[in-house]
Design goal:
Number of strands: 0
Strand content: under 5%
Number of helices: 4
GO molecular function, one term: nucleic acid binding
Protein name: DDE-type integrase/transposase/recombinase
Organism: Dyadobacter luticola
InterPro entries: Integrase_cat-core, RNaseH-like_sf, RNaseH_sf, Transposase_IS3/IS150/IS904
Largest sheet: none
Structural class: mainly alpha
Radius of gyration: 17 Å
Helix content: 55-70%
Pfam families: rve_2 (PF13333)
Distance between the termini: 46 Å
Number of domains: 1
């Protein structure tokens, strides 16, 4: 949509799009957005964009550093990457 692309360009945002036929390209981020919506966004009514932005930043820190994942052997993403970087 041209109007949307113009708004992005005006704000200095580069649009990211999957290649044709590659719907799995965005699977990881789509999963994250689903998780953040169910664990953060839908649980509270926010009074301002600033409040929501602060909560999102806090959640991203929690998600990366403290939230354990069973598919990462019970580690957070940061712990998992650190273990496999030093191996």
């Amino acid at each position: 949509m041209k109007a949307y692309q113009r708004i992005l360009a005006d704000k200095g945002i580069t649009q990211s799009m999957s290649r044709k036929g590659k719907c799995l390209d965005n699977a990881v981020i789509e999963n994250f957005f689903g998780t953040i919506k169910s664990e953060l966004f839908y649980l509270k009514a926010y009074n301002s964009v600033q409040e929501l932005e602060t909560e999102i930043k806090s959640y991203i820190n929690y998600y990366n550093n403290d939230r354990i994942r069973l598919n990462l052997n019970g580690m957070s993403p940061v712990q998992y990457r650190a273990q496999h970087t030093n191996s």
